Q: What sequence folds into this?
């Protein structure tokens, strides 16, 4: 059986602003709105469909990770810095102003306007080689 992720809905306070934010940082296009959704499609055909939620509805923070080439990472990271967006090397926001070099590539974390954690990596995760900080005590060795 062949199963692929086709799309996901991303909740936002302002669907247009959040879609435009992500598209600008990742150098993607904002698609044509469809009903309440503002789509941003990735190269592998997965669409993030942004939808606005009213203020009385809480937004639960989600995590979205994007795999890019090394050259694309340079562009993404430059746009993050040019926009003055806070960034971290880790998903727990303990290493501000840094990127990581995990899994043979580079990675960076930042928040979108809705508070979702965005991650950009230049190499897919592999778990057959230990990373710095991986110990039996950390649960990652």
A:
């Amino acid at each position: 059986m062949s199963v692929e992720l086709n799309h996901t809905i991303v909740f936002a306070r302002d669907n247009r602003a959040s879609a435009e934010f992500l598209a600008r940082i990742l150098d993607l296009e904002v698609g044509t709105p469809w009903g309440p959704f503002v789509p941003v499609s990735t190269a592998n055909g997965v669409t993030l469909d942004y939808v606005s939620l009213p203020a009385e509805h809480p937004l639960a923070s989600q995590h979205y990770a994007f795999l890019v080439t090394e050259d694309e990472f340079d562009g993404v990271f430059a746009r993050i810095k040019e926009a003055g967006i806070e960034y971290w090397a880790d998903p727990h926001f303990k290493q501000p102003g840094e990127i990581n070099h995990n899994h043979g590539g580079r990675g960076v974390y930042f928040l979108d306007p809705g508070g979702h954690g965005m991650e950009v990596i230049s190499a897919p995760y592999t778990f057959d080689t230990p990373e710095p900080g991986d110990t039996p005590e950390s649960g990652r060795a």
